[in-house]
Specification:
By secondary structure, the protein is mostly beta strands. The chain has four helices and 31 strands. A six-stranded antiparallel beta barrel has the order 8-9-10-13-12-11. A six-stranded antiparallel β-barrel has the order 2-3-4-7-6-5. Strands 21, 22, 23, 26 and 28 form a five-stranded antiparallel beta sheet that branches. β16 and β17 form a beta hairpin. It is elongated.
Protein backbone atom coordinates (compact mmCIF):
# COMPACT_ATOMS: atom_id res chain seq x y z
CA UNK A 1 0.00 0.00 0.00
CA UNK A 2 2.75 2.51 0.82
CA UNK A 3 4.08 2.69 -2.74
CA UNK A 4 0.66 3.82 -3.94
CA UNK A 5 0.38 6.42 -1.19
CA UNK A 6 3.70 8.02 -1.98
CA UNK A 7 2.39 8.80 -5.48
CA UNK A 8 -0.73 10.45 -4.11
CA UNK A 9 -0.72 13.83 -5.85
CA UNK A 10 -1.54 17.16 -4.29
CA UNK A 11 -4.79 17.54 -6.32
CA UNK A 12 -8.32 18.64 -5.17
CA UNK A 13 -10.58 16.22 -3.42
CA UNK A 14 -13.14 15.94 -6.23
CA UNK A 15 -10.46 14.73 -8.64
CA UNK A 16 -9.28 12.18 -6.06
CA UNK A 17 -12.67 10.60 -5.30
CA UNK A 18 -12.23 7.58 -7.51
CA UNK A 19 -8.67 7.07 -6.27
CA UNK A 20 -9.80 7.17 -2.65
CA UNK A 21 -12.61 4.71 -3.38
CA UNK A 22 -10.12 2.33 -4.98
CA UNK A 23 -7.84 2.75 -1.97
CA UNK A 24 -10.63 1.88 0.46
CA UNK A 25 -11.57 -1.23 -1.51
CA UNK A 26 -7.93 -2.32 -1.64
CA UNK A 27 -7.44 -1.71 2.07
CA UNK A 28 -10.54 -3.71 2.93
CA UNK A 29 -9.26 -6.73 1.04
CA UNK A 30 -5.65 -6.45 2.17
CA UNK A 31 -6.20 -5.65 5.82
CA UNK A 32 -6.68 -2.43 7.74
CA UNK A 33 -4.23 0.31 6.85
CA UNK A 34 -2.00 1.67 9.55
CA UNK A 35 -2.24 5.28 10.60
CA UNK A 36 1.03 6.00 8.84
CA UNK A 37 -0.24 4.46 5.63
CA UNK A 38 -3.60 6.23 5.45
CA UNK A 39 -3.74 9.06 2.92
CA UNK A 40 -4.33 12.52 4.33
CA UNK A 41 -4.68 15.99 3.06
CA UNK A 42 -2.53 19.06 3.01
CA UNK A 43 -1.18 23.86 3.15
CA UNK A 44 -0.93 22.33 6.62
CA UNK A 45 -0.39 24.57 9.66
CA UNK A 46 0.01 27.59 7.40
CA UNK A 47 -1.83 30.91 7.58
CA UNK A 48 -3.81 33.25 5.37
CA UNK A 49 -1.62 35.54 3.29
CA UNK A 50 -2.30 38.31 0.82
CA UNK A 51 -1.41 37.84 -2.82
CA UNK A 52 1.19 40.62 -2.50
CA UNK A 53 3.22 38.26 -0.29
CA UNK A 54 3.45 35.76 -3.18
CA UNK A 55 2.44 37.79 -6.27
CA UNK A 56 3.78 35.09 -8.59
CA UNK A 57 1.19 32.58 -7.35
CA UNK A 58 -1.64 31.76 -9.77
CA UNK A 59 -4.58 29.38 -9.64
CA UNK A 60 -5.34 26.92 -12.42
CA UNK A 61 -9.08 26.55 -12.98
CA UNK A 62 -11.26 24.42 -15.23
CA UNK A 63 -12.80 26.35 -18.12
CA UNK A 64 -15.95 24.25 -17.81
CA UNK A 65 -16.65 25.37 -14.21
CA UNK A 66 -17.91 28.91 -13.76
CA UNK A 67 -17.23 29.30 -10.04
CA UNK A 68 -13.59 30.22 -9.45
CA UNK A 69 -13.36 28.61 -6.03
CA UNK A 70 -14.74 25.23 -7.05
CA UNK A 71 -12.90 25.31 -10.38
CA UNK A 72 -9.40 25.57 -8.82
CA UNK A 73 -7.50 22.31 -9.20
CA UNK A 74 -3.79 23.26 -9.13
CA UNK A 75 -1.42 26.13 -8.57
CA UNK A 76 1.32 27.63 -10.68
CA UNK A 77 3.99 30.33 -10.79
CA UNK A 78 4.26 33.31 -13.11
CA UNK A 79 7.80 33.31 -14.51
CA UNK A 80 7.07 35.89 -17.21
CA UNK A 81 4.13 37.96 -18.45
CA UNK A 82 3.05 35.12 -20.73
CA UNK A 83 4.24 31.94 -19.01
CA UNK A 84 3.23 29.89 -15.96
CA UNK A 85 5.29 27.00 -14.58
CA UNK A 86 3.27 24.19 -12.99
CA UNK A 87 3.39 20.40 -12.47
CA UNK A 88 2.95 18.11 -15.46
CA UNK A 89 0.61 15.87 -13.44
CA UNK A 90 -1.81 18.83 -13.21
CA UNK A 91 -2.41 18.88 -16.97
CA UNK A 92 -1.86 15.38 -18.37
CA UNK A 93 -3.19 15.38 -21.92
CA UNK A 94 -5.25 18.51 -21.24
CA UNK A 95 -6.34 20.71 -24.13
CA UNK A 96 -5.23 24.34 -23.67
CA UNK A 97 -8.83 25.49 -24.02
CA UNK A 98 -9.84 23.44 -20.96
CA UNK A 99 -7.55 25.36 -18.58
CA UNK A 100 -7.63 28.98 -17.46
CA UNK A 101 -5.50 31.00 -15.05
CA UNK A 102 -6.36 33.39 -12.21
CA UNK A 103 -3.59 35.90 -11.45
CA UNK A 104 -3.26 38.70 -8.92
CA UNK A 105 -5.97 37.39 -6.57
CA UNK A 106 -5.65 36.04 -3.02
CA UNK A 107 -9.29 35.10 -2.43
CA UNK A 108 -10.60 32.93 -5.27
CA UNK A 109 -14.19 33.97 -4.60
CA UNK A 110 -13.23 37.53 -5.54
CA UNK A 111 -11.60 36.70 -8.87
CA UNK A 112 -13.28 38.39 -11.84
CA UNK A 113 -10.94 37.79 -14.78
CA UNK A 114 -9.68 34.55 -16.22
CA UNK A 115 -6.75 34.30 -18.65
CA UNK A 116 -6.88 31.71 -21.41
CA UNK A 117 -4.10 29.26 -22.17
CA UNK A 118 -2.83 28.98 -25.75
CA UNK A 119 -0.35 26.12 -25.27
CA UNK A 120 0.59 23.47 -22.71
CA UNK A 121 4.15 22.12 -22.90
CA UNK A 122 4.97 19.22 -20.59
CA UNK A 123 8.46 17.84 -20.16
CA UNK A 124 8.85 15.24 -22.94
CA UNK A 125 9.86 12.40 -20.60
CA UNK A 126 7.39 13.10 -17.80
CA UNK A 127 6.48 9.77 -16.15
CA UNK A 128 2.97 9.73 -14.67
CA UNK A 129 3.75 6.59 -12.66
CA UNK A 130 7.03 7.62 -11.01
CA UNK A 131 6.40 11.40 -11.29
CA UNK A 132 9.89 11.89 -12.70
CA UNK A 133 10.24 15.19 -14.62
CA UNK A 134 6.98 16.58 -13.20
CA UNK A 135 7.03 20.02 -14.85
CA UNK A 136 4.98 21.83 -17.49
CA UNK A 137 4.75 25.36 -18.90
CA UNK A 138 1.47 27.08 -19.77
CA UNK A 139 1.66 29.78 -22.44
CA UNK A 140 -0.99 32.46 -21.83
CA UNK A 141 -3.23 33.86 -24.54
CA UNK A 142 -2.64 37.42 -23.31
CA UNK A 143 0.17 38.88 -21.19
CA UNK A 144 -0.26 39.61 -17.50
CA UNK A 145 0.38 43.18 -16.38
CA UNK A 146 3.37 42.80 -14.03
CA UNK A 147 3.57 46.45 -13.02
CA UNK A 148 1.55 46.19 -9.78
CA UNK A 149 2.22 44.63 -6.38
CA UNK A 150 -0.20 41.71 -6.88
CA UNK A 151 1.17 40.35 -10.14
CA UNK A 152 4.90 39.74 -10.34
CA UNK A 153 7.04 37.10 -12.01
CA UNK A 154 9.23 34.99 -9.76
CA UNK A 155 12.86 34.71 -10.82
CA UNK A 156 14.26 31.39 -11.94
CA UNK A 157 17.32 30.03 -10.09
CA UNK A 158 19.86 31.67 -12.37
CA UNK A 159 23.22 29.86 -12.58
CA UNK A 160 24.72 33.33 -12.25
CA UNK A 161 23.18 33.71 -8.77
CA UNK A 162 23.20 30.14 -7.44
CA UNK A 163 25.11 26.91 -7.99
CA UNK A 164 22.62 24.59 -9.74
CA UNK A 165 24.41 21.43 -8.60
CA UNK A 166 24.32 22.26 -4.87
CA UNK A 167 21.37 24.67 -4.47
CA UNK A 168 19.34 24.81 -2.35
CA UNK A 169 21.40 23.58 0.58
CA UNK A 170 19.92 21.52 3.37
CA UNK A 171 18.00 23.48 6.03
CA UNK A 172 17.37 26.40 3.65
CA UNK A 173 14.06 28.09 4.61
CA UNK A 174 11.55 28.10 1.77
CA UNK A 175 8.03 29.42 1.28
CA UNK A 176 5.26 27.27 -0.17
CA UNK A 177 1.83 28.69 -1.06
CA UNK A 178 -1.49 27.55 -2.46
CA UNK A 179 -5.20 26.97 -2.01
CA UNK A 180 -4.80 23.28 -1.09
CA UNK A 181 -6.27 21.34 1.80
CA UNK A 182 -5.51 22.73 5.26
CA UNK A 183 -6.48 19.62 7.22
CA UNK A 184 -4.95 16.18 7.72
CA UNK A 185 -8.29 14.60 8.57
CA UNK A 186 -11.02 16.24 6.49
CA UNK A 187 -11.34 18.02 3.15
CA UNK A 188 -11.00 21.73 3.85
CA UNK A 189 -10.05 23.71 0.76
CA UNK A 190 -9.93 27.47 1.50
CA UNK A 191 -10.76 30.24 -0.91
CA UNK A 192 -8.06 32.44 0.68
CA UNK A 193 -4.43 31.87 -0.30
CA UNK A 194 -2.35 30.08 2.35
CA UNK A 195 1.38 30.18 2.92
CA UNK A 196 3.86 28.40 5.17
CA UNK A 197 7.62 28.29 5.66
CA UNK A 198 9.28 24.90 5.34
CA UNK A 199 12.91 23.82 5.33
CA UNK A 200 14.78 21.96 2.63
CA UNK A 201 15.45 18.65 4.37
CA UNK A 202 18.25 17.26 2.27
CA UNK A 203 20.65 18.68 -0.25
CA UNK A 204 19.82 18.13 -3.92
CA UNK A 205 22.39 15.32 -4.24
CA UNK A 206 21.47 13.56 -1.02
CA UNK A 207 20.86 9.85 -1.84
CA UNK A 208 17.63 9.62 0.18
CA UNK A 209 14.69 11.75 1.21
CA UNK A 210 13.08 10.34 4.33
CA UNK A 211 12.22 6.71 3.63
CA UNK A 212 11.06 7.15 0.04
CA UNK A 213 14.18 5.28 -1.02
CA UNK A 214 14.59 4.75 -4.75
CA UNK A 215 11.30 6.52 -5.45
CA UNK A 216 13.15 9.75 -4.73
CA UNK A 217 15.22 10.81 -7.73
CA UNK A 218 18.04 12.93 -6.36
CA UNK A 219 18.65 14.62 -9.74
CA UNK A 220 15.12 15.87 -10.36
CA UNK A 221 13.41 16.04 -6.95
CA UNK A 222 13.68 18.09 -3.79
CA UNK A 223 12.24 17.42 -0.29
CA UNK A 224 10.98 20.01 2.16
CA UNK A 225 8.90 19.91 5.37
CA UNK A 226 8.99 20.97 9.02
CA UNK A 227 8.27 19.60 12.46
CA UNK A 228 6.87 21.19 15.62
CA UNK A 229 4.17 21.73 14.39
CA UNK A 230 4.41 19.86 11.12
CA UNK A 231 4.07 22.11 8.11
CA UNK A 232 3.60 20.93 4.53
CA UNK A 233 1.83 21.44 1.22
CA UNK A 234 -1.18 19.27 0.45
CA UNK A 235 -3.76 18.22 -2.18
CA UNK A 236 -4.80 21.22 -4.27
CA UNK A 237 -1.36 22.82 -3.94
CA UNK A 238 0.11 20.77 -6.82
CA UNK A 239 2.03 22.82 -9.36
CA UNK A 240 2.48 25.68 -6.91
CA UNK A 241 5.77 27.34 -5.98
CA UNK A 242 8.43 26.45 -3.44
CA UNK A 243 10.16 29.85 -3.27
CA UNK A 244 13.48 30.81 -1.68
CA UNK A 245 14.73 34.32 -0.94
CA UNK A 246 18.24 34.69 -2.43
CA UNK A 247 19.78 37.99 -1.38
CA UNK A 248 16.46 39.80 -1.59
CA UNK A 249 15.24 38.12 -4.79
CA UNK A 250 12.63 35.39 -4.60
CA UNK A 251 13.56 32.45 -6.81
CA UNK A 252 11.56 29.38 -7.81
CA UNK A 253 13.31 26.41 -6.23
CA UNK A 254 10.65 23.74 -6.66
CA UNK A 255 7.17 22.76 -7.84
CA UNK A 256 4.69 21.00 -5.53
CA UNK A 257 4.63 17.43 -6.86
CA UNK A 258 3.84 14.47 -4.56
CA UNK A 259 4.23 12.90 -1.14
CA UNK A 260 2.74 10.50 1.38
CA UNK A 261 0.24 12.16 3.66
CA UNK A 262 0.36 15.84 4.55
CA UNK A 263 2.66 16.78 7.43
CA UNK A 264 1.20 14.03 9.66
CA UNK A 265 3.62 11.25 8.81
CA UNK A 266 7.20 11.43 10.11
CA UNK A 267 9.89 10.78 7.51
CA UNK A 268 7.47 11.48 4.64
CA UNK A 269 8.16 15.12 3.62
CA UNK A 270 6.68 16.80 0.59
CA UNK A 271 8.47 16.14 -2.69
CA UNK A 272 9.01 18.96 -5.20
CA UNK A 273 10.26 19.07 -8.77
CA UNK A 274 13.77 20.54 -8.60
CA UNK A 275 13.89 23.62 -10.85
CA UNK A 276 17.66 23.79 -11.35
CA UNK A 277 17.50 20.51 -13.29
CA UNK A 278 15.07 22.00 -15.81
CA UNK A 279 16.45 25.51 -16.27
CA UNK A 280 17.52 25.21 -19.91
CA UNK A 281 14.34 23.40 -20.92
CA UNK A 282 12.13 25.94 -19.13
CA UNK A 283 14.02 28.88 -20.63
CA UNK A 284 13.64 27.52 -24.16
CA UNK A 285 9.88 27.13 -23.70
CA UNK A 286 9.31 30.43 -21.89
CA UNK A 287 11.45 32.68 -24.10
CA UNK A 288 10.16 31.36 -27.42
CA UNK A 289 8.36 34.23 -29.23
CA UNK A 290 4.64 34.37 -28.51
CA UNK A 291 3.89 36.79 -31.35
CA UNK A 292 5.65 37.98 -34.50
CA UNK A 293 5.18 40.65 -37.16
CA UNK A 294 6.02 39.95 -40.79
CA UNK A 295 6.74 42.57 -43.45
CA UNK A 296 6.79 41.48 -47.09
CA UNK A 297 9.46 42.38 -49.63
CA UNK A 298 9.80 41.52 -53.31
CA UNK A 299 11.08 37.97 -52.67
CA UNK A 300 11.67 38.00 -48.93
CA UNK A 301 9.99 38.81 -45.62
CA UNK A 302 11.31 40.50 -42.50
CA UNK A 303 10.19 38.75 -39.31
CA UNK A 304 10.34 40.59 -35.97
CA UNK A 305 9.63 39.57 -32.38
CA UNK A 306 10.07 41.09 -28.94
CA UNK A 307 12.89 39.14 -27.27
CA UNK A 308 12.38 38.03 -23.66
CA UNK A 309 15.61 39.27 -22.14
CA UNK A 310 14.53 39.21 -18.48
CA UNK A 311 13.35 35.66 -17.69
CA UNK A 312 16.62 33.90 -18.60
CA UNK A 313 19.17 36.66 -19.26
CA UNK A 314 22.03 34.15 -19.15
CA UNK A 315 20.72 32.33 -22.27
CA UNK A 316 20.44 33.57 -25.85
CA UNK A 317 19.05 30.66 -27.90
CA UNK A 318 18.48 30.69 -31.65
CA UNK A 319 15.04 31.33 -33.09
CA UNK A 320 14.17 29.33 -36.21
CA UNK A 321 11.79 30.96 -38.67
CA UNK A 322 10.09 28.83 -41.32
CA UNK A 323 7.87 29.82 -44.25
CA UNK A 324 5.25 27.44 -45.59
CA UNK A 325 4.73 26.37 -48.32
CA UNK A 326 8.26 25.78 -49.52
CA UNK A 327 9.98 25.39 -46.16
CA UNK A 328 12.37 28.36 -46.46
CA UNK A 329 14.24 28.74 -43.16
CA UNK A 330 16.18 31.49 -41.44
CA UNK A 331 17.79 31.44 -37.99
CA UNK A 332 18.85 34.27 -35.71
CA UNK A 333 19.62 34.59 -32.00
CA UNK A 334 16.72 35.55 -29.76
CA UNK A 335 18.30 38.85 -28.70
CA UNK A 336 18.44 40.19 -32.29
CA UNK A 337 14.66 40.49 -32.32
CA UNK A 338 14.24 39.48 -35.95
CA UNK A 339 15.58 38.01 -39.16
CA UNK A 340 14.98 38.05 -42.92
CA UNK A 341 13.73 34.94 -44.67
CA UNK A 342 14.60 34.88 -48.38
CA UNK A 343 13.77 32.85 -51.46
CA UNK A 344 10.01 33.55 -51.38
CA UNK A 345 7.88 33.61 -54.53
CA UNK A 346 6.02 36.77 -55.58
CA UNK A 347 2.26 36.45 -55.53
CA UNK A 348 2.35 33.66 -52.88
CA UNK A 349 0.82 33.74 -49.39
CA UNK A 350 2.98 32.16 -46.69
CA UNK A 351 2.43 31.08 -43.11
CA UNK A 352 5.54 32.15 -41.20
CA UNK A 353 6.29 30.45 -37.86
CA UNK A 354 8.99 31.21 -35.30
CA UNK A 355 10.12 29.41 -32.18
CA UNK A 356 13.26 28.80 -30.17
CA UNK A 357 15.50 26.02 -31.46
CA UNK A 358 15.87 24.09 -28.22
CA UNK A 359 19.10 22.30 -27.37
CA UNK A 360 17.47 21.07 -24.15
CA UNK A 361 14.85 18.82 -25.72
CA UNK A 362 11.98 21.28 -25.49
CA UNK A 363 9.29 21.71 -28.11
CA UNK A 364 8.41 25.35 -27.46
CA UNK A 365 5.11 26.82 -28.65
CA UNK A 366 5.49 28.69 -31.92
CA UNK A 367 4.22 32.08 -33.04
CA UNK A 368 2.84 32.43 -36.54
CA UNK A 369 1.62 35.07 -38.97
CA UNK A 370 0.60 35.19 -42.62
CA UNK A 371 2.18 37.31 -45.30
CA UNK A 372 1.67 37.69 -49.03
CA UNK A 373 4.65 38.47 -51.22
CA UNK A 374 3.38 41.05 -53.74
CA UNK A 375 3.12 40.01 -57.36
CA UNK A 376 5.52 41.79 -59.70
CA UNK A 377 4.23 45.02 -61.19
CA UNK A 378 3.19 44.81 -64.84
CA UNK A 379 5.85 45.77 -67.31
CA UNK A 380 5.65 49.47 -68.20
CA UNK A 381 4.33 50.43 -71.60
CA UNK A 382 7.12 50.96 -74.11
CA UNK A 383 8.27 54.54 -74.43
CA UNK A 384 7.13 56.34 -77.58
CA UNK A 385 9.63 56.34 -80.39
CA UNK A 386 11.65 59.54 -80.60
CA UNK A 387 10.71 61.90 -83.39
CA UNK A 388 12.60 61.51 -86.64
CA UNK A 389 13.75 65.10 -86.36
CA UNK A 390 14.64 66.42 -82.94
CA UNK A 391 12.35 69.28 -81.94
CA UNK A 392 13.44 72.45 -80.22
CA UNK A 393 15.95 73.23 -82.90
CA UNK A 394 15.38 76.98 -82.80
CA UNK A 395 14.18 77.63 -79.26
CA UNK A 396 16.96 79.88 -77.92
CA UNK A 397 19.60 82.14 -79.26
CA UNK A 398 21.85 84.60 -77.45
CA UNK A 399 20.82 87.67 -79.37
CA UNK A 400 23.12 90.35 -78.08
CA UNK A 401 26.53 90.71 -76.53
CA UNK A 402 26.34 90.04 -72.82
CA UNK A 403 27.80 92.50 -70.36
CA UNK A 404 29.38 91.63 -67.06
CA UNK A 405 30.33 94.17 -64.40
CA UNK A 406 31.38 94.10 -60.80
CA UNK A 407 28.44 95.39 -58.82
CA UNK A 408 26.75 94.89 -55.53
CA UNK A 409 23.56 92.86 -55.38
CA UNK A 410 20.43 94.67 -54.13
CA UNK A 411 21.04 93.26 -50.66
CA UNK A 412 24.60 94.66 -50.63
CA UNK A 413 26.41 91.38 -51.27
CA UNK A 414 29.54 91.73 -53.49
CA UNK A 415 28.56 90.38 -56.89
CA UNK A 416 29.18 90.32 -60.62
CA UNK A 417 26.16 91.60 -62.54
CA UNK A 418 25.55 89.82 -65.83
CA UNK A 419 22.93 91.03 -68.34
CA UNK A 420 21.88 88.47 -70.95
CA UNK A 421 19.42 88.95 -73.82
CA UNK A 422 18.05 85.74 -75.24
CA UNK A 423 15.89 85.56 -78.36
CA UNK A 424 12.94 83.20 -78.04
CA UNK A 425 11.70 81.50 -81.20
CA UNK A 426 8.21 80.09 -81.65
CA UNK A 427 9.10 76.42 -81.91
CA UNK A 428 6.45 73.97 -83.10
CA UNK A 429 6.61 71.91 -79.87
CA UNK A 430 5.03 73.62 -76.84
CA UNK A 431 7.21 71.71 -74.39
CA UNK A 432 10.21 73.40 -75.97
CA UNK A 433 8.99 76.75 -74.64
CA UNK A 434 8.08 75.98 -71.03
CA UNK A 435 9.79 74.95 -67.84
CA UNK A 436 13.01 76.70 -68.68
CA UNK A 437 15.86 77.00 -66.21
CA UNK A 438 18.80 79.38 -66.46
CA UNK A 439 22.06 78.57 -64.73
CA UNK A 440 25.55 80.04 -64.75
CA UNK A 441 28.77 78.13 -64.37
CA UNK A 442 32.51 78.49 -64.69
CA UNK A 443 33.35 77.40 -68.21
CA UNK A 444 36.71 76.04 -67.07
CA UNK A 445 35.60 73.95 -64.07
CA UNK A 446 31.90 73.47 -64.90
CA UNK A 447 31.11 74.49 -61.29
CA UNK A 448 27.85 76.31 -60.63
CA UNK A 449 27.94 80.07 -60.00
CA UNK A 450 25.26 81.11 -57.53
CA UNK A 451 22.68 83.72 -58.49
CA UNK A 452 21.80 86.06 -55.64
CA UNK A 453 18.38 87.37 -54.68
CA UNK A 454 17.54 90.54 -56.57
CA UNK A 455 18.19 89.05 -59.99
CA UNK A 456 15.33 89.48 -62.45
CA UNK A 457 13.93 87.80 -65.54
CA UNK A 458 11.40 89.39 -67.85
CA UNK A 459 10.26 89.83 -71.47
CA UNK A 460 10.99 92.76 -73.79
CA UNK A 461 9.66 93.43 -77.25
CA UNK A 462 12.19 93.45 -80.09
CA UNK A 463 10.84 96.83 -81.24
CA UNK A 464 10.26 98.99 -78.23
CA UNK A 465 11.21 99.15 -74.60
CA UNK A 466 8.25 97.56 -72.93
CA UNK A 467 9.46 95.33 -70.15
CA UNK A 468 7.24 92.95 -68.24
CA UNK A 469 7.32 92.41 -64.53
CA UNK A 470 9.74 89.64 -63.52
CA UNK A 471 8.33 86.19 -64.31
CA UNK A 472 10.47 83.86 -62.26
CA UNK A 473 10.59 81.31 -59.50
CA UNK A 474 13.55 81.31 -57.15
CA UNK A 475 14.39 77.82 -55.83
CA UNK A 476 16.86 77.31 -53.03
CA UNK A 477 19.38 76.00 -55.57
CA UNK A 478 19.92 79.61 -56.67
CA UNK A 479 18.81 79.33 -60.24
CA UNK A 480 16.11 81.09 -62.29
CA UNK A 481 13.29 78.92 -63.50
CA UNK A 482 10.49 79.99 -65.83
CA UNK A 483 7.40 77.79 -66.01
CA UNK A 484 4.22 78.24 -68.05
CA UNK A 485 3.23 81.11 -70.25
CA UNK A 486 4.16 84.77 -70.29
CA UNK A 487 1.49 86.55 -68.22
CA UNK A 488 2.11 89.83 -70.05
CA UNK A 489 0.66 88.44 -73.28
CA UNK A 490 3.73 89.31 -75.36
CA UNK A 491 4.11 87.17 -78.46
CA UNK A 492 7.33 85.22 -78.14
CA UNK A 493 8.01 85.51 -81.85
CA UNK A 494 8.41 89.21 -81.19
CA UNK A 495 10.09 89.08 -77.79
CA UNK A 496 13.25 88.29 -76.03
CA UNK A 497 14.12 87.31 -72.48
CA UNK A 498 16.18 89.74 -70.47
CA UNK A 499 18.02 88.14 -67.58
CA UNK A 500 19.72 90.43 -65.07
CA UNK A 501 21.75 88.18 -62.78
CA UNK A 502 23.82 88.97 -59.74
CA UNK A 503 26.40 86.24 -59.37
CA UNK A 504 28.00 85.78 -55.99
CA UNK A 505 31.55 87.03 -56.13
CA UNK A 506 33.94 84.44 -54.80
CA UNK A 507 37.67 83.89 -54.79
CA UNK A 508 38.87 82.86 -58.25
CA UNK A 509 35.87 84.39 -59.99
CA UNK A 510 36.26 83.67 -63.73
CA UNK A 511 36.75 86.37 -66.29
CA UNK A 512 33.79 87.43 -68.35
CA UNK A 513 34.70 85.14 -71.22
CA UNK A 514 34.60 82.15 -68.88
CA UNK A 515 31.17 82.84 -67.41
CA UNK A 516 28.93 80.41 -69.20
CA UNK A 517 25.15 80.64 -69.37
CA UNK A 518 23.28 77.39 -69.91
CA UNK A 519 19.55 77.23 -70.55
CA UNK A 520 18.01 73.85 -69.82
CA UNK A 521 14.55 72.37 -69.63
CA UNK A 522 15.48 70.50 -66.47
CA UNK A 523 18.48 70.83 -64.23
CA UNK A 524 20.61 67.72 -64.79
CA UNK A 525 21.94 65.73 -61.84
CA UNK A 526 25.43 66.66 -62.94
CA UNK A 527 25.53 70.33 -64.02
CA UNK A 528 28.62 69.54 -66.08
CA UNK A 529 26.39 67.56 -68.44
CA UNK A 530 24.02 70.45 -69.12
CA UNK A 531 25.56 71.07 -72.52
CA UNK A 532 27.01 67.63 -73.11
CA UNK A 533 26.33 64.99 -75.74
CA UNK A 534 23.19 63.83 -73.91
CA UNK A 535 21.40 67.01 -75.01
CA UNK A 536 19.69 67.05 -78.41
CA UNK A 537 20.67 70.63 -79.05
CA UNK A 538 23.69 72.72 -78.22
CA UNK A 539 23.33 76.17 -79.72
CA UNK A 540 26.19 78.06 -81.28
CA UNK A 541 28.57 80.13 -79.23
CA UNK A 542 28.00 83.83 -79.13
CA UNK A 543 30.76 86.39 -79.28
CA UNK A 544 31.53 85.88 -75.61
CA UNK A 545 31.64 82.12 -75.90
CA UNK A 546 28.36 81.65 -74.05
CA UNK A 547 26.51 78.45 -74.82
CA UNK A 548 22.74 78.22 -74.93
CA UNK A 549 21.78 74.57 -74.62
CA UNK A 550 18.77 72.28 -74.38
CA UNK A 551 18.93 69.57 -71.75
CA UNK A 552 16.62 66.62 -71.17
CA UNK A 553 18.71 64.95 -68.47
CA UNK A 554 16.97 65.26 -65.09
Amino acid sequence: MRRWYRRFMRTPVWTRALLVLALVITAATAGAATGADAPSARIINGSDISISQAPWQVALVRSSVADNFNAQFCGGSLVSATAVVTAAHCVPGAAPSSVQVLAGVGNLSEATTRIGVSAITSYPTYNSVTQDNDIAVLTLESPVDLSGSTRRAIALPSPVSVSPSTWPAANTPSFVTGWGNTSTSISNFPSQLQGVTVDVLAGPLSPTCGIYGSAYDLESMLCAANTGPNRDSCQGDSGGPLAIDVSGTWRLAGIVSWGTGCADMPNYPGVYTRMTTYLDWTCDVVTSPTSITVTAGSSWADVAWSPDSTTCPWRNPDVQVTASPGGAVSTASLSTGGTRISGLSPGTTYTVTARVSSAAGATPPEASASVTIPAPAPAPAPAPAPPAVAPCTKTFFQQAARSARTRKAPDGTPAVRVISRIRVYQDAESWCRTKLTFIFRDKRTKKRLLQLPGSTLGFRRLSGKQFSAPVVSWPTTREFRFAGTDPTGLDRTDARLVLVSYLKKVKGMPAQSNIELVVVRRIPTDPASASGSANPLVAQNNTFGTKVAWATVS
